[in-house]
């Protein structure tokens, strides 16, 4: 490449292409070296995935200073999109909260290493949801530390593993209830507000719920998958926010593959294992490259030991919030999210973030789904009642985790399988199709351990998937023959 000569304050844009039959690949370090650029954030390389690329060279990092969002950015456009920040070229970066053309709620994933800016994005999205009348259920597996301002601005804030499981169970039950209701109404597509609001279920630090060894990993994985499957067409969306290096830990790649393929994926600063995973999962085509995002934008300066000692600048500006919107029309174009709240830590709640949410109550779940959402939803603002429900869930889990020796020796089997057996026994004894409630009553009468309707419903879905049970009509289950 010939030398590029530009005035210090000029932006240089190079359109490059390789001959037909070749795929454009580049080595950012080599490119920077060729152009004598010591700060990689001054250069943006956007490829079309095959032969062409635009290389833009800026006098300084174009995303160094991000403004806060405006109210107009926060309101959904007619395509259900909000503006989340800017691309390096100043164009608005948009993310979809809803797809009005298909009536689809969105599945979203936000990945980034620790401190990359995930929770600020969560706050912004939650504030946008509030402003757009969307019902937000928000679980923070960091005990509520990630986004304290969200507490009173969402319909259901959850802060523990147990509460998150209860929330996910309720969400699945609400989606099923909506399916039943819409079916009865002869509806085949979801429309916001007619009759129900859009719901968004979000789990920050989702890796803590889904990683190996997490106490409710199996059920959480199942519920996340189930919600992804049933929620989309009935206005219940979901989002996972997680640390990048844990992709393979998020309940197994199976759970996420569908979400990754069809969902709204935001990738913040990543680790190399994350990048390998994205490529091996087919999310990034092998030829496609993303310019890495450094942690700070301070160029590395070599200093001789004989130089006069200048203080090392530790406080170089960071790149938090910088990333790629992989499912947007510009997946390889570096963007940065708006600055949300004050950068310096604030004592107590951040007034700037509270202002984003605006005054008033957040949107609430429709009355028609309260029964389906169950006791946990009713108890969501009642710490004592919620603690009791969480304890019951812990007990349930402990029972399930106690392995019991299988009859005749052999491998111990988990008593988790027993609920399935008890349901099958109840159905066999009755001989007729039963509702989940009738099955629960029969199971509770068999003298075994206490279970709840949510577990029975979940187990019925597992049994139906495995072919042991069939759905014979609306809400009725029978033994498969
Ligand atoms: N868009 C942004 N612009 C400027 N600074 C930001 C932006 N987003 C985040 N920051 C800064 O980065 C810090 C870390 O952000 P945040 O807590 O959102 O990261 P995180 O990815 O959730 O980290 P963790 O893994 O620790 O939960 C914030 O306290 C804030 O100072
Ligand atoms: Mg966080």
Notes on the protein architecture:
- The protein has 481 residues and is α/β, with parallel strands linked by helices.
- The protein has three domains: 12-57, no CATH class; 71-294 and 318-343 and 350-374, Rossmann fold (3-Layer(aba) Sandwich); 414-479, Winged helix-like DNA-binding domain superfamily/Winged helix DNA-binding domain (Arc Repressor Mutant, subunit A, Orthogonal Bundle).
- The chain contains 14 helices and 20 strands.
- The protein has helices at 28-35, 71-74, 118-131, 161-185, 207-210, 217-231, 253-262, 272-280, 351-357, 370-378, 383-401, 416-430, 436-444, 453-466; strands at 12-17, 43-47, 52-57, 81-87, 92-96, 98-99, 104-105, 107-112, 135-140, 156-158, 199-204, 236-243, 264-267, 322-325, 335-337, 403-404, 413-414, 434-435, 469-473, 476-479.
- The protein has a ten-stranded mixed sheet with strand order 5-4-15-14-13-8-12-11-9-10.
- A hairpin with an 8-residue loop joins β16 (403-404) and β17 (413-414).
- α4 runs antiparallel to α10 and α13 packs across α14 (453-466).
- The termini are far apart.
- The model is unreliable at 404-417 (pLDDT under 50).
- Magnesium ion is lined by residues 118-119, 146, 204.
- Adenosine-5'-triphosphate is lined by residues 66, 112, 114-120, 146, 243, 320-321, 337, 339-340, 343.
